Structure formats: structure tokens, C-alpha cells
Amino acid sequence: MQLMTYSHFPKQGWTGQLDRNLDSDKTLVLAFGPSTLVDQPEPLADVMRAFPRAHVLGCSTSGEIHGTEIHDDSVITAVARFDDTRLRVVSAPAVAASNSFAAGESLARQLLDDELRAVLVFSDGLAVNGSELVRGLNAVLPGHVVVSGGLAGDGDRFQRTWVIEDRTPRSGFISALGLYGNRLKIGHGSKGGWDAFGVERIVTRASGNVLYELDGRPALALYKEYLGERANGLPATALLFPLALRHDAQSKDRLVRTVLSVSETDQSMTFAGDVPEGYLAQLMYANFDRLIEGAGEAAIGASLKAAGEDVLAIAVSCVGRRLVLGERAEEEIEATRDVLPNAARQIGFYSYGELSPHASGRCDLHNQTMTLTTIAEA
């Protein structure tokens, strides 16, 4: 596998000349950039012209990751030319959260093949229920296929996101890449680092990813009590206090959910994934050192010890982590890079949700985690 990464900045342009010799029908191009690229797609047009045969995947971000640096309003691109791995890109519309399961099923059916080893998924970050999308994928794909990716971001604005669909940045779509062949090596890791606080309450009324009541009280009103003055900045300030969910008091596994929007009319809160009725819910807050340690642990889980020098590392971290860490955000990117092989190339983005298995098993939707996917050929 041959691998290169590039950056584009509004004033400087591309930091290096795009290597057209990497173009082929076994070439993967990943591109991450701001939501404004829908209106100003010239940098992406450069990529499409340089790699006309390649399979292109990418999405909008809440910050772009390149190596150990975080940028805004840049375009970060990785170009990987495989030796034997086959690639296929497919897409499905993401018109509403209610069709997310069907979209996941559709993507999986389009990609299903005896040689399928991994699926990389990037979705519109606003018009999807990430939990249902994952359920749809898992309903069709066999358990040995590794599924990872993320939900597109739009800073802390929550107004518009896009994915690359048919080589064009478009809102309202989910795109997925299938990787096929026995030489493919893939690793994955996902860790959080948040601490729970306050009273654990019961989800007494919810529908899919919309939460209406906790302990019989309106969810938004109760949430505002905890946020105090920060409630004026909703929904963005909710990223600082995600919700931890568990099935019952005996369960040790917690799902973390990020708020996407709030409704003053019915006092509801819409999350990136399901909030099941009957589950226990508790607010979480950031422990800076544990967030950074968690990023390093995610990289350890994703390590490909037997891989050659060329390793593509795709880092997807939640926008809430970036907002909480502030000037220390690059420390979590440095923590992942420190674990990877010296010659590995790391790119990625800050997201509205992360898709990855836990330490093992099927894919799940995560919020407020650092996830890392590593790709190489043996």
C-alpha cells in the first residue's frame, strides 16, 4: 500500500502537489473539511481532478485532524493506493431519523460479499439516528466485518453537514466504503474518559432518539437545572455535559449520548442515538487527564503490530471533547499518534458521533469518545 496525506488552507492552498501517480481503481481518497465546502467546493474539485479513478469518501467536520494538529476551515486528505484490496463506495439517503435503519440495511446489502472485511461509514450528522443506522448495518453484515466511521460535524452550530456522495459534497446522505480481500489488516479502538455525577434518573418517556421525561419530569427543564447559566447556550453547551445510559443498576456498560437539538415547545431533547425507556440516565462531566489517557488507550486497541510501515490511521473524536479540552485538545491527538508506528499517517475529524466496535464485537454508536481505525495491507 502506498500512502500520502495533504492539507489545503484558504490562503496557502495545498501544502504539497497531489500525486496523480497514486490514482487507480484500488485507490481510496479520504477528505474532511468545513461545512462551507458545499458552497465553495474548489479544493474538493482539485482532488477529484487529480484522482478520477479513485474511490472518494469524506464528510464535514467540527475540526480537521492531520497528524498531531487540529485545524478549522482546512481540507485534510489521505490518498491510499492498495496493492490487492478491492474497494467499493455506495450511498443511501438520510432524509429523516426514522429511515436510518433502512438506510443501514441498504448500504450493507449493496456491499455484502464473501470477501468483505471492513466497512467505513460517514453519515450526515443531523438527519440520522446513529443507533438505528448501526442496527441496520449489523442486521445484514456478518459479525467478522469491522464497521467504523462517524457522523459529520458542523462545529458547534448544528445547522448543516455533508458527506461526499457520488464525488460531490451533499447534505442528507450516508456514504460507505467496502474493503475486500485477505491482505487487508484493520484495527479499531474506542475510549471515553468522562465521569458521571448527580442523581441517576429513569428514562420515563422517550421515542427513539428523542427524550421527553426523566423521572416523570420534562427532560429539558431538568437538564437546564443542572446547566444553570450555561443553559442559555443550548444546544452547544450540552456537549459539555453528555448523558450516560445503562440498562439497569447491575449493568457496568454505559452508552454515552450527545444532544443534537432541544425543543422549548415540548421540553424534549434530541440525541445522536437512541435513549431507551426504562434505562437509567446520569449526567457526565470531563476529567481532562482521563480524556487524554482514553485517546491513547483507543490507539493501543487499534494498533496493527504485524502491519508494514504504511498504516492509515483515521481518528474520529467527538466535538464535545474538543470544546471541553480547549487548548489541550491537541494532546489527545498527540496521545494517539504516540502509540502508532512512526511511519503511520493520521488524519480525521471532530464529529457528532463515532461508529466503532467496543474492544471487540459488533459496531455501536458512541458519543464523546475518541475512536481510531487503522488500515494496512499485510
Short structural description:
With 378 residues, this protein is α+β, with helices and mostly antiparallel strands. It has helices spanning 42-50, 100-111, 130-140, 219-227, 288-302, 319-325, 329-339, and strands spanning 2-9, 13-14, 27-33, 55-60, 64-66, 69-71, 75-81, 86-93, 116-123, 146-151, 163-165, 168-170, 173-180, 184-191, 194-207, 210-214, 217-218, 243-246, 255-257, 259-263, 268-271, 280-286, 312-318, 345-351, 353-357, 363-366, 370-377.
Keywords, please?
378 residues; alpha+beta; Elongation Factor Tu (Ef-tu), domain 3; 8-stranded antiparallel β-sheet; 6-stranded mixed β-sheet; 27 strands
What does this structure look like?
The protein is an alpha+beta fold. It has 2 domains: 2-190 and 289-377, no CATH class; 194-286, Elongation Factor Tu (Ef-tu), domain 3, CATH 2.40.30. It is 20% helix and 41% strand. It has helices at 42-50, 100-111, 130-140, 219-227, 288-302, 319-325, 329-339, and strands at residues 2-9, 13-14, 27-33, 55-60, 64-66, 69-71, 75-81, 86-93, 116-123, 146-151, 163-165, 168-170, 173-180, 184-191, 194-207, 210-214, 217-218, 243-246, 255-257, 259-263, 268-271, 280-286, 312-318, 345-351, 353-357, 363-366, 370-377. Strands 15, 16, 17, 18, 19, 20, 21 and 22 form an 8-stranded antiparallel β-sheet that branches. The chain has a 6-stranded mixed β-sheet with strand order 6-5-24-23-27-14. Strands 8-13-9-10-25-26 form a 6-stranded mixed β-sheet, covered by helices on one side. The longest helix has 15 residues, at 288-302. It is globular. It starts with a strand and ends with a strand. The relative contact order is 0.18.
